[in-house]
């Protein structure tokens, strides 16, 4: 878009230069007196300076954007070297696959279009269920983000992966726990589907199953989170 604006401004300059040549010719052939020529010349120079300044500003903007895009591309390439990464060139959003364990992985979308402002991470709902919606903000690279010296994208996902691995693998030391974790994830998914379909009673039963499994796994955080959700659903049911 900026390139089109620059081309349009250059066309305006060419027209001004043509008009100036015409003024000079009219002056030489006495069709324009000296006083009128000097007045038109002042206006011409003022407009020419204005257009040249706009072109300079646009070129600096284009150069800045191109430099920013190159930095983001380098960051995404570095990220792809350590994580499976897919980039949508039309939207500029990348999908990063993070392995939490042998049978658990997450797909996380990242939008870097605001760079050097911090990127926006689209966290799956299932991750919110385990860690809460503010979990991403606890990651040090995002928490301590600096526009002057932005952290590397790969550092964000390294810390994220470490937290996920610790959370899931410490509960997978026993095969029985692994099976319970998998069953609990399935129950959470089914419960959410039931909620969306308006089947409140079914959702409550499924969430109770989640709470029971969380109790077996000694996972108090998840237990109380879904215990609270059950209470909210029961309250809403009474008010309807």
Describe it.
The chain is an alpha+beta fold and 240 residues long. The chain folds into 3 domains: 2-79; 83-169; 175-239, Methane Monooxygenase Hydroxylase, Chain G, domain 1 (Up-down Bundle), CATH 1.20.58. Helix content is 68%, strand content 10%. It is built from 8 helices and 4 strands. It has helices at residues 2-28, 34-82, 125-131, 140-143, 153-169, 175-196, 200-216, 220-239, and strands at residues 84-88, 93-101, 104-111, 120-122. The chain has a 4-stranded antiparallel β-sheet. α7 (200-216) packs antiparallel against α8. The longest helix has 49 residues, at 34-82. The mean pLDDT is 77.
Described by the principal axes of the CA atoms, the overall outline is: elongated
The low-pLDDT segments are: none
> What is the rounded Rg?
31 Å
Total beta strands: 4
What portion of residues is helical?
55-70%
Sheet with most strands: 4 strands, antiparallel
Count of helical regions: 8
Which strand-content bin applies to the residues?
A: 5-15%
Q: In the residues, how many domains can be counted? A: 3
Counting helices, strands and paired strands, the structural category is alpha+beta
Tell me the span between the first and last alpha carbons.
53 Å
Mean pLDDT score: 77
**If strands are numbered along the chain, what order do they take across the biggest sheet?**
1-2-3-4
Listing every helix as H and every strand as E from the N terminus to the C terminus, the arrangement reads HHEEEEHHHHHH
